[in-house]
């Protein structure tokens, strides 16, 4: 559905919640879930929460219009955010607007990628962002609404409307909301954002155009070596965009898997190196047509293998979740980057 | 109740839409624009052959995005606008 209204402010009359949602859906503003009406008063509370953030925004793909702070805040209101969540939403938006992220490609693609947001630093606890049990699932307002707000911004300001400019073949539940925090408190490694050059006391959002998480179940392996075998085996996927295009991914280690790895001497960096090498895909697993297609793109195997990651650094290792012998692998769109942005408070 | 339009934004300076005239499909230069997905080239070559039955194929040219996973470059879009009256896009996979 195309936008029917060009004005920044819209008088919608004296309507109730149900009528408001019918109106918003008719405008093409909805992700299918009910939304809060972005009244001027509510939007003002959000824009007042980011007074230290004065940088302008680049045009948002694919529609290529420059947002106003008010229109961005309206989407955060509609998503159900609290005003204090808004700086995290804006940090996520700044990250996906970096050219390396390839926002246009990630939104217009047939691939089922959503915008993953990984939050580090003190803002996690200040906003009650779930980093523990069920952190990628339902139940926590901050995770659900911060992730949703970014998606709504890309839908409404960016114009990534399903079936129109968003050409996803199936889409993904990851396109509703995709936000969690690193469980820094239970991680044996330095926090992810510190490994990327930020200070521990800074709050940082890292984004990536990501598939929904793929589970890595390993209850039996009680050594780091055993876990590396299971994790790398899960990453070695022929149909993944990473197999075609390489690019970044996330490995979200459950705290128990992370502790086992650390106990056996593994570091985040040595995990990256091992997973890079052991997730390679033998040519015998790849179709003849794909081999021909890749050769036509001047992409050739190395010792009869293709690497799903361009380098060990493409494999972003974080720790999150609660008790249990599970980790997660999150492949990406491929032609994208994991981009971090500091939260302006 | 007055709300803030969640789709509101400004068109960047210099990005205004220009009106174009009608296209003479039998004579005007036409660009066949590939999204660089598998089989896009074959699709467009078939289109060029079909066009060749009703007009000269001179002035019917191809261009490919640098990658299926990236948008066309600004130079490609600018070049298409400068030198051709119409562009036919291969959007299928």
What does this structure look like?
The complex is a heterodimer of chains A (345) and B (93). Chain A has one domain (17-342). By secondary structure, chain A is α+β, with helices and mostly antiparallel strands. Chain A is built from 13 helices and 12 strands. The relative contact order of chain A is 0.16. In chain A, helix 3 crosses helix 7 (141-156) and helix 9 packs across helix 12. Chain A is globular and about 65 Å long. In chain A, the strands form 3 sheets. In chain A, strands 4-3-5-12 form a 4-stranded mixed beta sheet. Chain B has a 3-stranded parallel beta sheet. Chain B has a domain at 38-90. In chain B, 23% of the residues are buried. With 93 residues, chain B is α/β, with parallel strands linked by helices. Chain B has helices at residues 40-51, 74-83, and strands at residues 2-4, 9-10, 30-34, 60-64, 86-90. Classes of the chains: A alpha+beta (345), B alpha/beta (93).
Secondary structure blueprint with pairings:
The complex is a heterodimer of chains A (345) and B (93).
Chain A: E1 9-11, H1 17-26, H2 40-47, E2 66-67, H3 69-79, H4 86-96, H5 103-108, E3 114-120, H6 123-126, H7 141-156, E4 179-181, H8 192-195, E5 204-210, E6 214-217, H9 224-235, H10 241-245, E7 249-253, H11 255-263, H12 268-278, E8 281-282, H13 288-296, E9 305-306, E10 315-319, E11 326-331, E12 339-342
Parallel strand pairs in A: 3-4, 7-10
Antiparallel strand pairs in A: 3-5, 5-12, 6-11, 7-11, 8-9
Helix pairs in contact in A: 2-3, 3-7, 4-7, 9-11, 9-12
Chain B: E1 2-4, E2 9-10, E3 30-34, H1 40-51, E4 60-64, H2 74-83, E5 86-90
